[in-house]
Amino acid sequence: MKREVRNSRQQANSDVFSWSAIDMLGVNPQVIIHKLNVLLGEKSIKQKKRRFVLKVVEVVRQEVAKLLSVGFIKKVEYSGWVSNMACPKESFPLPSIDRLVDASAGCRFMSSMDAFLGCNQILLDQDDLEKTTFITEKELFYYRVMPFGLKNT
């Protein structure tokens, strides 16, 4: 009975739920934009293209297509940057996942920022887009939003 009530509430309020990445409205840029902390005077760094086995190449293609379809990344023809090495390591420790999970225990609700692609809802500063460039088998892309796993995010 509880499950039916919950499902009917979800259906009645389906407009407030995000069912996929494309449904995410993101965070208003007037509230926050992520700025990369890059070492002053750092020259652009290009990482070498990595070779992957065919099975991994297909997974990368699928993931890139998914990120591209929802506007999280953009294709680039040329970039002076293909690296994450120019960002200095932050000195403050991040909380462990165990502490975060324990802290959320007992919470009745979590926001979409907490639960669903949280970082990907925050736009990157326009000056920093090129600095997030990454290379795939044949193409270059940069992030338009703060990606999960980017150094110091």
TrEMBL record:
Superkingdom is Eukaryota
InterPro entries referenced in this protein's UniProt entry, alphabetically = DNA/RNA_pol_sf, RNA-dir_DNA_polymerase
Q: Which PANTHER family does the record cross-reference, listed alphabetically?
A: REVERSE TRANSCRIPTASE DOMAIN-CONTAINING PROTEIN (PTHR24559:SF444), TRANSPOSON TY3-I GAG-POL POLYPROTEIN (PTHR24559)
- This one is known as Transposon Ty3-G Gag-Pol polyprotein
- What's the source species for this entry? Gossypium australe
Lineage start: Eukaryota, Viridiplantae, Streptophyta, Embryophyta, Tracheophyta
